[in-house]
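Supplementary Text 2. Reproducibility record for the structural model of the 364-residue chain.

All settings were left at their defaults, and a single model was retained for analysis rather than an ensemble. We include the record here because the model underlies the residue-level annotations in Supplementary Table 4.
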Amino acid sequence: MIGAGVIGCSVAYELARRGAAVRVVDDRAPGMGATQASAGMLAPFTEAKDRNHAFLDLAVRSLGLYDAFVADVAAAAGVQIGYQRTGTLEVATTGSHMAALEDLSARLKAHGVAPRLLDAAAVRAEEPHLSADVTGGLLIESHGFVNAGELTRGVASAARHHGAEFIHGARALRISPRAGGLILETSQGPLSGDAVVLAAGSWSASLEIDGVVQPPIRPVRGQLLHLSWRDVNLRRVIWGEQCYLVPWQDGTLLVGATMEEVGFDENNTVAGVRELLEAACALVPRTTVARFLGARAGLRPGSPDAMPIVGPSRAMKNLMYATGHFRNGVLLAPVTAQLVADVLMDGRSDPALEAVGPDRFEGL
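Retained model, structure tokens:
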């Protein structure tokens, strides 16, 4: 397994849980790549607005796994994981945005989902701290969020509980075939195994793979703010046009997130922090009294069609991809782990792989 982000750790956990001998290679501690700048939102119906039906089906399926996933990981790891299903509220400040929410509400109802479309009075009854500019909103009660850092560390511990080994500080360099399996060259020496799972996120394209083209993954920087307030109580995730707010019961607040094509630059910037602060204050004016606790940045792995790349390589036997999840790694972690383990442990190819398989890109 290459990569110890939320995807890599989740796949390692699922494989180890099913009895595989797993070694995880990463030069960072679990969750210290893109996952550290994730707000952990679990909102497939909002995330899928600009995506295809295959993404929505996969995301909804993964959300359906989450209750059991968190409970099983917490039990195996012996830890608590912050996890809430209090819904999300997307709000509008313009007529065009409100019309888009009305359209989304109608489409979701046609698919058996029951969102609540709120006018200005109703949306303020739900969230009194919203700006006076908010004219309405759409409440989707099945949505929620999870503490991405706690989840990733918990999944890593649960994987260890089932026998997985984490080789920290080792950078994966090259994958080569050998009789009956593969060899992974690392900065700490070679490792051999029956199969390799490439779950290195934005760094998936930096690995050399003999006879195989690099996957078309690019980094997209996302900056996230961490704030704290005492006298403001938001009930759920608030999603505006320029930012989202994720409130925790301890009075802290996550504000995200930018999307920047800046290559492998993981630094926070004044422009990014300012953009998010201004957007948050415009959405909830009381944000101006919040304390600034810090800012994080992570590189999300984007693919050309905004879909993850999950499944077996046709160009190299026993190579599996689990990358390209962009801003939805946390949401898609349970279903990705399930899909990969089904192939490697049971030889079963789930129909969902037709939409996310690597064979849609030449040379993979």
